[in-house]
Amino acid sequence: MAMNTDRRRINAPSGGTSAPVFARTVKEQGYLQSLRPARTRAPNDLRKIFLQTSIIPSASGSAYYEIPSDISPSPKSLIPPTSSLKIVASIQGPKPLPRSAPFSPTLLLTTTVKFAPFATRIRRGYIRDSIERDLGVHVEAALRGVIIGERWPKSGVEVVLTILEADEDGFWGDGGKGEGSGWGLLNVLAGCITVASAAIADAGIDCVDLVSGGVAAIVPNPESKNGEETEVLKVLDPSPAEHEDIIAACAVGYLAGRDEITEIWMKGNVGVSPDDLVEGATYAALGNLAVLKEVLLESIQARFASQQPQSGAGDGANAKDGPQQDVEMSG
Amino acid sequence: MAAATTAAKRPAPSNSDPQSQTTATPAPLSFPRPIFAALSPHPFLRAHLTSTAPVADRKSGAKGASKRQGIRANGRTPSESRTPQVHTGSLTHCNGSTVVRLGNTVAVCGVRAEILKAEADVEVTEKVDEDEDGGDDDDAEEELRALGLLVPNFEISTGSTPLLLPGNAPSAFAQTLTARVRNLLLATKVVRMRDLRILYTPSIDEEGVGGTRRKVVKGYWTLYIDTLFVSLDGCAFDAAWLAILAALRDTRLPRAYFDEEFEDILCDDDPAQARRLRLRGLPVPSSFAVFEAGETGDEDDDEEGADKMWILSDPDAFEEQVCREAVCVVVDLDRRTGGRGMVVRKIEKSGGGVVGRREMRGLVEMAWERWKVWREVLGA
């Protein structure tokens, strides 16, 4: 807990606080390892995702993305299990730039990524840190290649991504080893790209294609018993907590229709064939795209269905401005 | 909620009056609804509140009542509040969490407990340890405040409203909200100091004078109460408080004890040993906004009904922009009379002088009705 005193917020007690330490994890041998989750999916299976658009009526576009955790909180322990990914995206704009801003012939994209204080196992602060800024730049790069910016000169659009819950960097029981390695960030980035893409489509901003995110990783093959070092396995959509060790991982922002990659983030020791890993990530992105398309189609159909009865309104384009839209939000 | 988009598409007829005064234009200017609302919000809301015609078929239930009252732009009657919805236990890394919906206002609240170690062992007298409902615990409140064990914070700039964009320091609005919530948390003494103490009874009581074992405070639970607005459509304070109250009710603290072997505070991860926070009372705030018909200083002030005013309960973001006077009443069940009456815990009023004693009495009554709704939603 950084002890920067923030005068605009309420700060923690001056002594600093520590997260609770559970007795069984320090006293009982082997208890920690018994909590370790394991991957039950096939290497090419993706986790299910939940996506919904138009959750914020006052925003021009918005979406909610969740990878529901398949491990239900165990009734036997209070220690939080592996977290799932939950992201809210909100689009404000496009709106005219302030008069003081220099002329811009294209749409100015601003992407903000913020973790909620309760997003991770270690409580986060409110002031944006370098990880969040870095993620913001990556998401922005992924989106900039998709939006047709020339259609909005002198305007800006704000993409705000709030991460309510993030994937973890590794199994928490491994101590400091998993922390800060950033494996979880790749999943967060892929999720951010997908949800931002959904929100942009919901806002009706012209794009060349739908971008979606995907992750692939190379992990040591758990099947290989004889300790051959070449025995590695490529898995799609890895959940870092389920793997004891990750050799390399890659997240992409992928345009399936044009077979283009707008963003790529690779980490670790990739070895001789990085293309293989990138290809795996694009497959994962394709899987997410299928969900994305279906959700967008559904939301458009729902919008038109709600328009039909009020034919006399005459302003069909302003569907978003209807003051109320019923929204279900889980999570 | 679902009925809001239908009907009332055209501005109500009363709106055409200003134009016919100035020029002799026969056809009054007609805008689509959202544009009218954006261009002249005040007449827009007034037109809605004064119009009575389209109301009857809208709400089949309360025909007579709504006819007299007029209807707001969001389809509610002036005294109608949005029904709150609460969903608990949705965040992994929190001791207690909620997602709260109040119409289009959605707030997520997570309560996270961390341990503050006591600087020196503080001895506890039996009296303090056993303070119950009625006991005078002014010291406890002082202690809570001095140690800063409740840390409520807000994040509003999440794209939840177009008015507050991220990347800036917390706005005055966010800071005010934080201060108000913290004051209410401390003033209503919702959280018991007793729940937050981590006690330790030394096994070897070398000082065991008088036969009783001494108890020592080894540490305190600190509650980080972080609330994040996903979508903001007015009534931020009510939604925030509802979220916090529901999250606190949902909070489970693991059993914490001082371990002599480790010389540190350890926790038990057995859920059966954990205990919930026992909150003191259920203070419920109700916000109101006062809409004055003749506020803008238009030429039509001399019209009849220019001095009319409406008190709108649970205002949405649009109404909050138009109205200047705001009232917030916090009520709770009066425990001392055996749970029959009500007590007013707090009244905040700012921005105008319309609400006097008589109106305030009515507002308190409405707040009491709201309390009953909340109690049902929270399952208290």
Question: Can you walk through the features of this model?
Answer:
The complex is a heterodimer of chains A (331) and B (380). In chain A, 24% of the residues lie in helices and 22% in strands. With 331 residues, chain A is of the alpha+beta class. In chain A, the strands form 2 sheets. In chain A, strands 1-2-3-5-4 form a 5-stranded mixed β-sheet. In chain A, strands 7-6-8-9 form a 4-stranded antiparallel β-sheet. In chain A, helix 3 (130-144) crosses helix 4 and helix 4 (183-203) runs parallel beside helix 5 (274-307). The model of chain A is unreliable at 311-331 (pLDDT under 50). Chain B is an alpha+beta fold and 380 residues long. Chain B folds into 2 domains: 84-126 and 137-280, GHMP Kinase, N-terminal domain (Ribosomal Protein S5, domain 2); 285-294 and 306-378, no CATH class. Chain B has 11 helices and 14 strands. In chain B, strands 1, 2, 3, 4, 5 and 6 form a 6-stranded mixed β-sheet that branches. The longest helix of chain B has 22 residues, at 357-378. The model of chain B is unreliable at 1-23, 54-67, 128-136 and 297-302 (pLDDT under 50). The chains are: A alpha+beta (331), B alpha+beta (380). At the A-B interface, helix 1, strand 3, strand 4 and strand 5 of A face strand 2, strand 3, strand 4, helix 7 and strand 6 of B. Chain A: Residues 46-205 form the Exoribonuclease phosphorolytic domain. Chain A: One of its GO terms (molecular function) is RNA binding. Chain A: Keywords: Cytoplasm, Exosome, Nucleus, RNA-binding, rRNA processing.
Q: SSE layout and pairings?
A:
The complex is a heterodimer of chains A (331) and B (380).
Chain A: H1 23-27, H2 31-35, E1 50-53, E2 61-67, E3 85-96, E4 108-115, H3 130-144, E5 155-165, H4 183-203, E6 211-220, E7 232-236, E8 248-255, E9 260-268, H5 274-307
Parallel strand pairs in A: 4-5
Antiparallel strand pairs in A: 1-2, 2-3, 3-5, 6-7, 6-8, 8-9
Chain B: H1 17-22, H2 33-39, H3 41-50, H4 63-69, E1 84-88, E2 96-102, E3 105-124, H5 126-129, H6 138-147, E4 150-155, H7 172-187, H8 193-196, E5 197-200, E6 215-231, H9 236-250, E7 252-253, E8 256-259, E9 264-267, E10 275-276, E11 284-292, E12 309-313, H10 317-322, E13 325-333, E14 342-350, H11 357-378
Parallel strand pairs in B: 4-6
Antiparallel strand pairs in B: 1-2, 2-3, 3-6, 5-6, 7-10, 8-9, 11-12, 11-13, 13-14
Region (Disordered) (chain A): 306-331
Pfam families (chain A): RNase_PH
Keywords (chain A): Cytoplasm, Exosome, Nucleus, RNA-binding, rRNA processing
